[in-house]
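Lesson 9: reading folded outputs for more than one chain in a single document. The general rule is that every protein is listed as its sequence immediately followed by its C-alpha cells, and records are never interleaved. Here is the first one.
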Amino acid sequence: METSRNSSLLVTFLLAFLIIASDICMESQAKSVTDEIVVCSSTKDCRDKNYPCPSPLVLDCVANVCTCIHLQPTFTNEIHAPKPSVTN
C-alpha cells in the first residue's frame, strides 16, 4: 500500500512540474513574438528612434505608431497599348 502511495505522489509531483515547465516555456515564446510598439508623430520620429525595417519595406508613422509598409507600384504609366490601325 505504501509503495503505490509513494508512486502516485511521485507521479503527481512530476505532472505538476511538467505543467509549470510548459507554462514557462509558452510565456517565453509569446514574449518573443510581440513587436515593440514605438509611438511617433512623424516619420522623422521613427528614423530618430532607429525603428528597424526590412529592405523592401519603407518606414512610416501610421496612426501614431511606427510601421513598415509596402509602397504601391507605379508601373501603370509604363503600360503601352498599341494604337489601333485606321484603314479607310
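And here is the second record, again sequence then C-alpha cells.
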Amino acid sequence: MNAVLTRGYRFKDKIFRNDMMVLLMYISKRVENRTLFASTGLMALLLSYAVSEARRRELLQSGFLEKYLREARVLPDLGDGAKASKGIPLTNTQEDMEFRTLLWGTLARCCSSEPCAEAAVQCGFVESLLECLDAEAPPEKWSQEQRRQVQLEALSSLFQLVQYVPDAFMEAQGNAMVLQLLQATRSREVQKKCLHLLQVAVRMGPHFAENLGQLGAVGTLVELFTDKDNPMTSRQMCASVLATMCKEYPENAREFRKKDGVEAMRDEVVYRPGETTDNHLFYSLCVVDCVWNAVVGTRKNEIRFLDAGGLFALLDCLEVAPMLLKRQIIGCLADLMEYKKAAKLFTQWNSQVTMKGALRLLLELWQCEQQAAGNLAPDGVIRDLEQPLNPRAPPTLALGELIDDGESTVTSTSRFAGKFRHAKNFADTAGTGTSVTTASHGRTQKAFEKAPASAQQRQGSQWLSSGIEQDCRAKIYAVLKCIGFECQETLSIAERQQMELVKLFPMAVELEMWIKVQESLANRGIKPVSADRQWIEDCVVERRDQAAWVQNIQKKLAEERQTEEEASLERFYKDLRGRAQIQRMTQPPGYPPHMGSNDSDMWNEHLPWTNAAVPYAVFFLDSEQRRLATAAREGERERDREREREREREREREREREREQAKNICSSDVRCCQTNPRPK
C-alpha cells in the first residue's frame, strides 16, 4: 500500500489504489481486524493521506509519521525517510475523490479500536475533517458540488468519531464548526447531516449541551424548527436535539422560552397523519419529548405552555393518537400535573368528538392496558388475586415471548451500538497489557473509556424500550393521584370497576413484588428466619385481602350491570307486546296480515316470549327484527317477480298458439286452391 501511495502516478495506479481501499473497507468491518490496522502501521500510513496538507507537513517535520512507520517496519531504512514517505498529493479528480471517501470512512470505522483512536487523535484526523466544514473558507480547488460532497463525507465520518473520541471533537471546537455550517448551508442534505451529528453529539456528555447552549444553538434550532419549508425529518431532529439540550440544563430551557420555543412546540402538538406523506408518528413523538424536557419542570415555561392551550392540545392528541404516542403523552402529563394549575385545567377538558372528560379517557386507556395484560374477565372482574396487574403466563408462552423479544431487540438496536460494545471490549483488553506514558495518550484513554460508557447507557435504554413491553398504568395512576379520584361526570359501571383497581394500584404492585420475593426464595432454596417469613406472609395476606375486597366490589358492579341489562330488555319486550296488542285491536275482523313496511304481526309470530330470551342484548333483538322484516319483504318481492315471470310465460305460450293457428290456416288455403283451380 505504501508503494501505491508514494509511486502511483498513473491512472491505472489510482484505480488499483482505490480497489485496495475497497478491500480495506470490507476488512475494517470485522471488529477483530481493526487493531491490526494500528499494529501494522497501516493506520498511520492511511492517516498521513487523510489529514490536510498543512497537518501532513507538520507530521513529517516533527518526524512522528516517519518514526511510527519505521516502528511498524513499513518504511525501509533509506536514509531520507521524509522523501520516501512524502507521497502523492490528492487532487479534485474523480479517482481521488473516491479514494478520499473510502479512506475517511475506513479510518473512522477503525477508531472503535483504542490504538487506532489514539493514532487518529495524534495525527489530527478530527481537526482535518472539521477544516472541510469551514463555511467561510475560500473555494480554492473545489467546485460547489465537490465541496458539498466533501462536507457530506466529512460529516459522516465525524458522526462516528464523536462517539469514539468525544474529547478530541470537543477540543477541536467541533460544535462551533458544525453549528456554523448548519447556519450557512443551503443544502438540505448537509443540513440533515449536521443535525444528525448534533443529535448524537449532545448525548455524549453534559459539556456538549452546555457548549452548544453557549454558542447559541437553541435559537438556531428553534428558527429551523419553525420554518415550515424545512422537511419534516429535519424539524424532527431539531426537536430531538432541543429536548436533549434542555433536559437537565435550566439555562438552555430559559433560552428556549426567550426564543419563543414554547409557542412553536405548542403549535405542533397535533396528530394528523393524513396531511403529510412523511412519518408523522415519529415527528409527534419528538415534539412531545421536547415538551416533556424543555417545558415540563420549568415553572415559567409551564405557565406559558398552559396559557397557550398546550394542555388541551395534549389531551386532544391523546384521544386520537396510536398507543405508542399515547404512552409518551401520558408520561408528559404525569409530570405536568405536579403543577396545581395544570391539574385544575385537566378536569375542565371535554372531548370535541365524544364529549368525554379527561378522566374517562384515562380509564378507557387503563382498561385497554388491563385487557392487553390478560387479567380481566368478560364481566370486568380481575382474574388473579395474587397478580391483579400482570397475571402469570404459561411457561411455554413466556419462553416464546422471550425469544421474540430477543429477536426484536437484536434487530432494533443500532449498528453503532454494536461498535461501542466491541470498542469497549477492545479498550478493556488493551488496557490490561499496556501502560500510558504520554499526556496525549492519557487524554485519549479517558475519552475512549468515557465514550463507550455513555454509549452502553444509551444502548441499554434502547434495549429496555424495545425488548420489554411498555406499560402506562403507573403513569395513569400518577395523573389521577394529582387530580383526585372523584369524577364530576357520571361513570359507567365498567369505568367504575376500573377506578376501583386504579385506587388499588400501589398495593397491587407491592403484592406482586412480595409474591416474586417468595418465589425467588423458594427457587433458590433460601429459608428466611421466622420473623422475616412471618413479616412477608403478613404483607402478602394484607394486600391479598385488599385485592379480594376490590374484586368483590367489581363483582357487585357486574351484577348491577347484569340487572340493568335485564331490566332494559324486559322494558323492550313490554314495549313490543304493547305495540302488537294495539295493532291487533286496530285491524278489522278477517283482515289478513300485511307483510309490507309494517311488519309488527310477522315480528309478533317470531318473537320468543319465553324467559330463555332474557339474556339477549337489546341490539341483538333489534337486528333480528330488522333481519326478519327484510327477509319477509324480500320474499314478497320474489313471489311478485315469480308471478310476473309466470304471466310472461303464459303470454308467450298464447302467442305461440296464435302463430300455430295462423300457419294451419295458410296451409288449408293452399290445399283448397290446388283442389279447385280458378277458371280461365
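What the second record shows: Residues 76-85, 394-424, 426-468, 594-621 have pLDDT under 50 and may be disordered.
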